[in-house]
Amino acid sequence: MTDNKDEVQKDGAPVRKRPSGLGRGLNALFGDAAVEAPVLASPGAAKPAPAAGDAVQHIAVGSIRPLPGQPRRHFDEAAIAELADSIGARGLLQPIIVRAAPDGQGYQLVAGERRWRAAQRAGLHQIPALVRELDDAATYEIALVENIQRQDLNAIEEATAYRRLIEDFGHSQEALAKLVGKSRSHVANLMRLLDLPQGVQDLVGDGSLAMGHARALIGATAAEEIARKVVKDGLSVRAVEALVRAEKGGGRKAPLEYKSIDGAGGRDPDIVAVERHLSELLGIGVAIQYAGEGKGALTLKFASLDQLDMICQRLSGESI
């Protein structure tokens, strides 16, 4: 991210800015100065004078506490160790975001818990941070959006965050969809995963069960049993759907129903399954037109420029 202020090169020529309307991403919540030029923090770095507003400050690692109930609950220790090695060698290049702790004691993390954990492991005493004035709703919104745009949340964590924003802060599904740059149906479908038994949710949370498989299990009486079979035998989503339909219908009408759903209009059920998987992964509408002989067209549908920006970032691997 870059701020939106005009920048001027040394020769006086203006730097070409990104077109307005795209690339806002987290800037819409963080503020235009959310991330300035990379700031290097190392154990021996001198602490700069305190700065006002959104300027990057260096604050003590020990004065920062994690956000209670932050969206992400699973942290990859191997990835944090790798990040700690990088920070130890090069410093922390991107500031974290904090707010004053509600009890007045130090700071509370808003975004950047992985970086904070890795900085502690690397032995840093101070790290660069943006200190923002945020209420609880804005704090949780930023934590959610940052994790989603960095693709750090699993489906259950994301769904739980949506539910909290709806129940605790009064957001609608439409408002959440706009906030995270995804479709309303994506938000609704994810939240339905929270109706699954806890055992199935745990399998999704640790990566053993994919979101597509989990969705197929919604409403199944033997959801946990089928989920364990999926993990053990590597069943496809279509196989799971067939098992669930057989459970509900006694098995007699399952084959016909299975064909009528996945094979509608003569479409290849595998192509339909890929469409569904990509749609769930990206949170937008996806259409595949297969012409045979390995050829076809893939269409990604977006409902706003924010969604288009998100698609571009995902495809280009651009850092948020």
TrEMBL record:
Residues 1-14 have a biased composition (Basic and acidic residues). GO terms for cellular component: chromosome. Keywords: Chromosome partition, DNA-binding. Pfam families: HTH_ParB (PF17762), ParB_C (PF23552), ParB_N (PF02195). The keyword DNA-binding applies. SMART domains: ParB (SM00470). Residues 57-148 form the ParB-like N-terminal domain. One of its GO terms (molecular function) is DNA binding. GO terms for biological process: chromosome segregation. Residues 1-23 are annotated as: Disordered. InterPro entries: Chromosome_partition/occlusion (IPR050336), HTH_ParB/Spo0J (IPR041468), ParB/RepB/Spo0J (IPR004437), ParB/Sulfiredoxin_sf (IPR036086), ParB_dimer_C (IPR057240), ParB_N (IPR003115). Belongs to the ParB family. Involved in chromosome partition. Localize to both poles of the predivisional cell following completion of DNA replication. Binds to the DNA origin of replication. This is Chromosome partitioning protein ParB.
